[in-house]
Amino acid sequence: MKKVLLACCLGAAVVTAYAQPQHPGPDANQRLTYLQKSLQLSNEQTQEIKPILEQSAQQRHALMKKYEEQFKAFRADMKNQDQQTRSQLAGVLTPAQLQAFDTQREAHKHFRRGPGHRPGGPHGEARPDAPQP
After folding, report:
1. Does 35 fall in a domain?
2. In which band, very low, low, confident or very high, does the pLDDT at 110 lie, cut at 50, 70 and 90?
3. Is 131 inside a domain boundary?
4. Residue 68 belongs to domain spanning
5. What's the pLDDT score for residue 100?
């Protein structure tokens, strides 16, 4: 039973993560700085990559604007579905189990933030300039 609830929770979190509108992310200069360090780019490569990243950031921003209303509607639908699921679970679970379920959902909240919002670099890896533990 716990595994089924956890799977439902994680599944909802992952689906919700993709429902979140993605901000354009780090600006082109931040991405360039990250790539310079992580890929050890030469000065020539840095100069060639900069306009590519700037154009990509502009295009990503335009796409986010284009689909903003669809993201909002999807998020609202997912929130409603999540509330319905919790309401149905409340009819089956004990109060202590429901509280534990809510605690698990809160603990996995970071999954709902979506791609591009992971700690560290753009793909979740540690940033090269981040302090090492």
Report:
1. yes
2. confident
3. no
4. 2-113
5. 94
Cα–Cα distance, 80 to 128 (Å, whole number): 40
Is position 88 within any domain?
yes
Return the pLDDT at 3. Answer: 53
81: tokens are 């579905």
Cα 1 to Cα 14, 89, 104: the distances in Å are 20, 12, 14
How does residue 86 score in pLDDT terms, banded at 50, 70 and 90? very high
User: Structurally, how many domains does the chain consist of?
Assistant: 1
The answer to whether residue 11 is domain-embedded is yes
Q: 43-90 and 2-19 helices cross at what angle (nearest 10)?
A: 130
CB 71 within 8 A of CB 19: yes
d(CA 127, CA 133): 12
Give the global pTM.
Answer: 0.48
Q: Which long-range contacts (CB under 8 A, 24 or more apart) does 16-19 make?
A: 16/75, 16/78, 16/82, 16/111, 16/112, 17/111, 17/112, 17/113, 17/114, 17/115, 18/114, 18/115, 19/71, 19/74, 19/75, 19/78, 19/114
